[in-house]
Amino acid sequence: MSTENIRTYDVIVIGAGPVGENVADRTTAAGLSTVIVESELAGGECSYWACEPSKALLRPVLLRADAVHVPGIHPAVKEPLDIDAVLAHRDRMSADWKDDGQVEWIKSVGIDLLRGHGRLAGKREVSVETPDGGTVRLRARHAVAVCTGSRAALPPLPGIESLRPWTSRDATSARKPPERLVVVGAGVVGVEMATAWQALGSRVTLLAREEGLLPRVEPFAGELVTERLREAGADVRFNVSVAAAERTQDGEVRITLTDGCELTADEILFATGRAPRSEDIGLDTVGLIPGDWLATDDSLTVTAVPGNWLYAVGDVNHRALFTHQGKYQARIAGAVIGARARGEQLDTGRWAPHSGTADTEAVPGVVFTDPEVASVGLTVREAELTGRAVEVVDHEIGHVAGALQYRPDYRGRARILIDRDRQVVVGATFVGPGVGELLHSATIAISAEVPVDRLWHAVPAFPTISEVWLRLLETRRDS
């Protein structure tokens, strides 16, 4: 290979999604020359096929759901949504699937961008197959960070390829609502897309193999979401999945369920989990198994590769599959790479600068359904499984004055879990319209380990929904 095709940097980042961009931003700020390798659009899954387009679809849906219950709002708000306008808004929020703005930002902060498919090629080396068919060899003086994310995982259903199913990418980028949509999966993607497309005119059937929706959060959350989906017209079924399916010559999808029932749809969305984008990135060249999740320690260093040069950041490490959590990891990884490049000792104690403690202690998440679901830290089930002794405190959010101002028929619920030994909040769940904005206060309380007695002095403004914090403390005091 000619020397013109070999380029050396301090840091190589594979993947230019939000995670890779943040790693590169931090290492560049630390004075390390950095290149990002990207085979698709700079900005990644979140910008074009996940967070941004899905929330653009859901925002008009949720705003309308609240507005129809507020006195004095014009009756026209009860009319069906303007589908073309909603989809045009979705397109704008996805930058029309063009990454010019992302590329401009990458260049503006001094990061190099190399288009092409990057594969590890041994210790601190990456081979990039460029769009013109050429190959560029990259060498890293200090670190390689794998930030390739995850993809939709399809179930092992016979003939699934010929079925041409929707994945999350199809569900967020569709050009029109299907008349009949079957959604398979009870998790975040399944319930959010069922909420969006039902409101945009599809007849949605949601299939959950579990006994309820959103099985990773408190059960009352899934119950309220189920109730609203059914009120909106969706057919929600539990303890069932797809046994067989085929797409006919006229384009219909014919589905047989595990309980023997049969359905016909125009599209079927499988929202049944995620898999790492690691099957073709050269893991075998460094002793790892292609297609596996990449296990790391709290410094985001891949534990199975010696030498502290390989990092896995974001979804690909399977620590916490959220964009915001991946960006948090990126800040940690960038600081670790910078410290090691300077020969400094890492500070990896609990909540220390070089430790991703939040991945296990305080992972926040919002499900943008009607009603919203916001949670951080432990659930009751997780506390029981891990042997944590917790006190459970519940309060109906609809009893708070601020909630009634928000919506006269407000229905929602709040729960906090208090560690009995340390007397700090270790988990919180809020369900109801607008509760996503409550979540950061809970995240701060958990990550800062604020004593419960001190929370009495954090006075919520009246009349806001945040007053539920005071009501939770009063409920605990009076119980």
TrEMBL record:
Pfam families from the UniProt entry: Pyr_redox_2 (PF07992), Pyr_redox_dim (PF02852)
Domain named Pyridine nucleotide-disulphide oxidoreductase dimerisation: residues: 363-469
GO MF annotation: an example: oxidoreductase activity
Cofactor(s) needed: FAD
Domain of life of the native organism: Bacteria
Keyword Mitochondrion applies: no
InterPro entries tied to this protein: Class-I_Pyr_Nuc-Dis_Oxidored, FAD/NAD-bd_sf, FAD/NAD-binding_dom, FAD/NAD-linked_Rdtase_dimer_sf, Pyr_nuc-diS_OxRdtase, Pyr_nucl-diS_OxRdtase_dimer
Domain FAD/NAD(P)-binding: 9-319
Key words of the record: FAD, Flavoprotein, NAD, Oxidoreductase
Signal peptide boundaries: none
EC number(s) recorded for this UniProt protein: 1.-.-.-
Similarity section: Belongs to the class-I pyridine nucleotide-disulfide oxidoreductase family.
The protein's name: Dihydrolipoyl dehydrogenase family protein
Organism expressing this protein natively: Streptomyces yanii
Upper taxonomic lineage: Bacteria, Bacillati, Actinomycetota, Actinomycetes, Kitasatosporales
